[in-house]
């Protein structure tokens, strides 16, 4: 038995498109910040007494496609460990309801940590990152805390994440504006594939990312939050331009997304350095220096109810506990990558 | 003295970016439909008794930047004709108030027609098209009726419009959904220049247009309205992806634009062939076969008040009357290009 806790992450330079659908090798590098406020805790037991996988998320049994995806992932762990048993998986998402932030990133990172350890594997964080990647691309980065780079690589061995700055020594912070979507969204998996295949701008996007990775890393080293925010905002808009230019074209923006973008830009026009980013959904995340937090929250609260504004500093990397609740990865422990 | 009437046009393959700012030579070809419902009527008199230009639009005096732009245009006409006098210009826009469709296209086409004739020039329609281009790029196409192609050319002589099908012999029709914008918009002049300079996707956009011009002309020859609509919709979204990917990124969409797009797509999901296009503003224009008009109007009226839905068939090319109110260009008259 093992338990793992992993945080979700928000990309500052986006991952949008796979080169290999099965191994989840991305078309580009990407770079994210792990968020303290949003995480998943997952416990896994491989049990010879089980006659089928038993999976719950937030204490509700999971069946159908959701269960299939988890079983497919556990098959990889079984193959790696030689373990033959079915598993019991109990997972809790610590994400505000309807936030649209319950991404698969924290879920598959936590599952990778708990399942690998429960199966008897003792993986390095780099190998955990590679394993998490098989479940969901963005989970690759959720193994690490702080600011994280995912090297696209060219195969299973070379495509993994690495920390750029695990413990932030400057005031970079994010705020999620919770926006509900009434409509069924296009999954990021489907959306990015459509962009790769049908957007005439996809080849240029790869150059955009290559350039943004360089300037973003330089901005991080310089602790230059306005530069980080500006690059992240442009990068996000250029990703969303891929969805608009796909065939059929579509957008993850809804009415409130536009309102949120406008609110952030109005604050910026007032001289407050804040920037936005968006992923495959209508939520808007604001990037800023924690010194400006109060003014930004006050400003946004003129448009959005305060309970819809969730502040998050950078969060830690994965933590894994063994069957005796002994922390074996994460926290204050040292480890090699 | 001369009077001219010119209709506005909506591009099915968009013009978005200049190669030459002064001569208004575009980066790409473009293709539009002239609309019967929206037009400008302009009377011009060159009068030696005048000591300054006198300009009214909808009976209101025009001064400042608006007047400067018209005077600059009249200077071109004076240079061509040798005329030295100031002009009196009286213009009426027949466009629903706040429609955002009072584009400079019909305005500068009508001004080109009236001013050139009033100055004594007798220009062919091709030369009128070249002259109108100097006032506003899209005015180049408003000299002609029906479906019109603007050849980008490479200089003043080679950049002009030409009709593809002056009198439509199939049911292509448009409907404008009138959407107000409370915010100051980014002018198309400024917006397109920003896209040319800062969008990483601009080079690919030029290839998109080259391809769309071919497929659109083939679809027109085949009278294939679903194909025309599909190409136009994709082309518009790919143009708007340029604004999103510019630095700073921006959008002409507002909340109601998204609602209108959704309404059109819902109708399409119900099996009605309708498509949308948008220009440098929040209004949405719907493209369809006039046989489906009633179902489309009924469907959209569930979301938008009926007075905000303006149906327009294709409109005629420019008409010019001389000082005796004798029609000298347009209507049933023949002319060479």
TrEMBL record, chains A, B:
Which Pfam families does this chain map to?
MDD_C, MVD-like_N
Q: Which PANTHER family match?
A: DIPHOSPHOMEVALONATE DECARBOXYLASE (PTHR10977:SF3)
Residue ranges of domain Diphosphomevalonate decarboxylase-like N-terminal in the record: 6-161
This chain's protein is named diphosphomevalonate decarboxylase
Span of domain Mvd1 C-terminal: 175-307
Gene3D superfamilies for the chain: 3.30.230.10, GHMP kinase, C-terminal domain
Which keywords has UniProt assigned to this entry? ATP-binding, Lipid biosynthesis, Lipid metabolism, Lyase, Nucleotide-binding
Q: What is its EC number?
A: 4.1.1.33
Q: Which domain of life is it from?
A: Bacteria
One term of GO molecular function: diphosphomevalonate decarboxylase activity
Q: What's the family?
A: Belongs to the diphosphomevalonate decarboxylase family.
């Amino acid at each position: 038995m093992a338990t793992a806790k992993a945080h979700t992450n928000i990309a500052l330079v986006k991952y949008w498109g796979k080169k290999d659908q099965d191994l989840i090798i991305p078309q580009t590098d990407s770079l994210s910040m792990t968020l303290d406020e949003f995480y998943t805790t997952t416990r896994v037991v491989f049990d010879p007494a089980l006659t089928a996988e038993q999976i719950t998320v937030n204490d509700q049994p999971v069946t159908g496609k959701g269960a299939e995806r988890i079983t497919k992932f556990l098959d990889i762990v079984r193959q790696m460990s030689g373990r033959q048993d079915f598993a019991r998986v109990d997972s809790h998402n610590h994400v505000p309801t309807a936030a649209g932030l319950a991404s698969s990133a924290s879920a598959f990172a936590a599952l990778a940590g708990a399942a690998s350890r429960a199966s008897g594997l003792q993986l390095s964080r780099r190998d955990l990152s590679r394993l998490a990647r098989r479940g969901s691309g963005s989970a690759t980065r959720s193994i690490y805390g702080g600011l994280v780079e995912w090297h696209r690589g060219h195969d299973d061995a070379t495509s993994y994440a690495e920390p750029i700055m695990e413990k932030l020594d400057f005031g970079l912070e994010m705020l999620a504006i919770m926006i509900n979507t009434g409509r069924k969204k296009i999954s990021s998996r489907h959306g990015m594939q459509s962009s790769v295949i049908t957007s005439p701008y996809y080849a240029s996007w790869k150059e955009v990312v290559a350039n943004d990775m360089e300037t973003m890393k330089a901005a991080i080293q310089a602790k230059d939050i306005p530069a980080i925010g500006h690059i992240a905002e442009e990068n996000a808009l250029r990703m969303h331009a891929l969805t608009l230019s796909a065939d059929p074209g579509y957008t993850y923006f809804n009415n409130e997304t536009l309102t949120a973008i406008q609110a952030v830009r109005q604050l910026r026009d007032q001289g407050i350095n804040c920037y936005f980013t968006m992923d495959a959904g209508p939520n808007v995340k604001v990037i800023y220096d924690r010194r400006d937090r109060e003014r930004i929250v006050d400003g946004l609260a003129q448009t959005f109810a305060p309970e819809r504004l969730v502040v998050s500093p950078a969060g830690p990397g994965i933590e894994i506990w063994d069957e005796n609740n002994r922390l074996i990865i994460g926290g204050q422990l040292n480890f090699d990558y």
